[in-house]
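To whoever is on call:

I kicked off a structure prediction for a single chain this morning and the downstream step that reads the tokens threw a length-mismatch warning. I double-checked the sequence; it's 265 residues and nothing unusual in it as far as I can see. Pasting both halves so you can look.
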Amino acid sequence: MIRTTCIIDNDFGQTIADRLAALPISLHIQKPSDKIQPFDICIISVKDFATLRSLLPVLLPDVSADSTIINYTAVTMEQTRELKEMLKDSPVRFVAGAVVCHHDAIGTEDALIYYSGDQKGYEAAGILLSRLGGAQYLGTNIAESALMDYTADGIHYSYILAFYTGIALCKKYGFPVETFLYHTLKSMPPLSEAAYRNIWIGLDDPRSFEEVDDVIHGMEMLVCLLKKTGGKEEIRYQSERQKKLNDALYQHWNDLMQDYSQPKD
């Protein structure tokens, strides 16, 4: 039986632990300040990089080459350099995860979670990652997940800026732009669903509809840009709900374009 320790202090971590509780594993859930329990796989989802950085010196001395750490804590591209330095002398198999769907979608067919890092560690945690849903392995560089995490988070607020920054980061770190385009396009349906969930203010507040429309409009422009710049892969819909959502998104975009293309008086 897989000994799994979850070190959590946020909603994402709690949702992950709740989903894993359904598996036939030995599951221990604890806070960052608790004494670390022995593990085969350690799941980390804490509030910030500072907490993660303080945890690793406690975790790493006792791990073996058969131990795997899967981190869901948000990490920037620059912070991955510090992580690599901390991990370079450790035998642990480290995997970085980036959740780009709403936390309520974790463990459902609407989930989308990117992973990068040690491939054997990713494979060893297969039963856990399958339960969380939507697993997509990017490669051995842990910064690849950080890139998708940054882009997915930025799309909610700055749309095109996040996209162009992602392209620049691909060039800076040597990641294939075509892969970035494909995965950014693939992430659009769960991100648009998350926008609905995150921005909703209340049925009695008209700003709800205005703000959601603004977010979806920005995503529509980004989808169009992705298509034009090479994101030509078809989205593999994980559910009929996502398909309907994305179809509506495209239809709204087409309606807007038709309106703008009409002669003005």
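Update from on-call: the warning came from a stale cache, not from the record. Cleared it. Sanity check on the structure: Residues 65 and 91 are 5 Å apart (CA to CA).
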